[in-house]
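Field reference: sequence -> structure
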Amino acid sequence: MNLKINDPVAQTHSRNNGTHFTHSTHFLTRANAFTLAETLITLAIIGVVAAITIPSLVKNYNEKAWGTAKDVFEKRLEVVAKQLNTEEKLAGYNSTMDFVNELKKKIKIINVCDSNNLSKCFESKILTADGQEVDAANLKTSALLAKENWGTETVGVQFANGINALIAYNPQTDQQPFNNQFSATEASMAILYDVSGHKNPNTIGKDINQNANVKKLGCMIKKDLVGGMCISQILAPGTGYSPLTKEQCEEQKDDLEIRECYYDSDYWAGAVKSCGGVSNMPTESQLIDLAKYVYNTDSINGGESTTYETLDTEKASQFLSASQSSAEFFVWSGQEYSSDRAYYRCFYFTGPGWRSNTRDRSYILAVCVDH
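Structure field:
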């Protein structure tokens, strides 16, 4: 017996005890595709997501790469410095160039630039973390690159690993051939280095790094706020700078543009040395501009004293070192009165003053400026 069953949905074939069942089937076809509008919307969404996520991914990658390059370079530089130390070749150089010539025997250097050609080895313009532009080509001496003036020149260096650097050597380096547990690089040099070579962003704290001996670069107080004065360092006596003896002053006075030396504990000369010379000290006119800024008035001028002005303690706090507890402060000028006196400006709560005092005053700030 042969039965036929019509089924509009499916067709099967089965055999059961010799019986043959046949199912007829109707197939329904449907075109599965996106419309042009749907495709464009999808691409737009992908583009938006990419625009949001890719910059963040690139930034994270760059920061990780810079950090890794920094760690590797500093480890390598520390090892090299300690090798020089054990061989008693870390100290004893009168110039940075002499030191670099010894350094390149231990680490591959492909180019060296003297202080007049720094931009051939290093970016001429770099940025501080807050976006201020620094002309690196002008960092020609240790007084301009390092926290202290060692009396040496700055040398540009290009390492074989792609890192560019500015180096100032400390001729007072104290090598310890039997002890390699000290920080050799901090003791011997100030180094500012760019782990990305000449590539952007050329920003301190990102691809540009420094060791502890490099001073703060850029204007601590912006030029447009204080009559065009760019303050690069603010140093407290004792902790930030030290006085010079008469002998020390006599040895360096020509380089520092000092006319005469005080008989002992010359804090003014010590301030001048830390700033790199009289030309890097504030003038009377600049200190008047500073007074106008921290007292919020344009009525201040020269003279022995000006009273009945109120110090803006919030602005004044920018000039104080951590060791000072009072908002009142005092600043040396670059104006020398005699072998035993120099001019400075007082910033009292009730008004500023301008006067000379003996050069052994141990409470007056050294404020270094870039003219």
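Note: Confidence is low (pLDDT under 50) at residues 1-28.
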